[in-house]
Amino acid sequence: MTDKTKPLDPFDIEGQEAEKERIAEAARVKRLIEIEDFKWLMAHKQGRRIVWKLLEQYGVYRSSFRSDALEMAFLEGQRNDGLKLLADIHEHAPERYADLMKEQKDARSSSSSSSSSKPGSTGASGGSSSSSSKPGSTGASGGSGSSDTRNE
User: Fold this and answer.
1) Alpha-carbon dihedral sign for residues 47, 51, 56, 62
2) Burial of 139 by CB count in 10 Å (0-12 exposed, 13-18 middle, 19+ buried)?
3) Quick check: helix, strand or coil at residue 117?
4) Do the Cβ atoms of 8 and 28 come closer than 8 Å?
5) By the 8 A CB rule, do 103 and 49 touch?
6) SS3 of residue 151 by DSSP
7) What is the Cβ-side half-sphere exposure of residue 92, based on CA atoms within 13 angstroms?
8) If phi over 0 gives left and psi between -120 and 50 gives alpha, with beta otherwise, what is residue 4?
9) Neighbours of 56 (CB within 10 A)
């Protein structure tokens, strides 16, 4: 059906099969491009920061249990998307997952050490900025801060 002026012939089985093969090949090429793009993204520190932010927003590393069934279903849907992203990481860039985790651990430890080393005049503002820079840790202990970021 590459020519839109030509009507579909229901008796042209070979033509229909050729069209199916063309569509399947186009989908395969598109997926290969997506995989290469993903590998490129994971190869850069900036890209890994974006991926980490998405994993946190999707709630991959926290429980989605809620007493409200609809809210829990919504959170599980988000988490499912995050798990697909995590599966792509493990399938197409497994060596970069360790880099991703190490960079986030280093970022958390440097932000917590900078806020704890200045308990004087910046203690109140440092505490609030460190909690907003670590949504994964606040999402696990307190649901209100993480639910605001999910609805954005």
Assistant:
1) negative
2) buried
3) coil
4) no
5) yes
6) coil
7) 19
8) alpha
9) 21
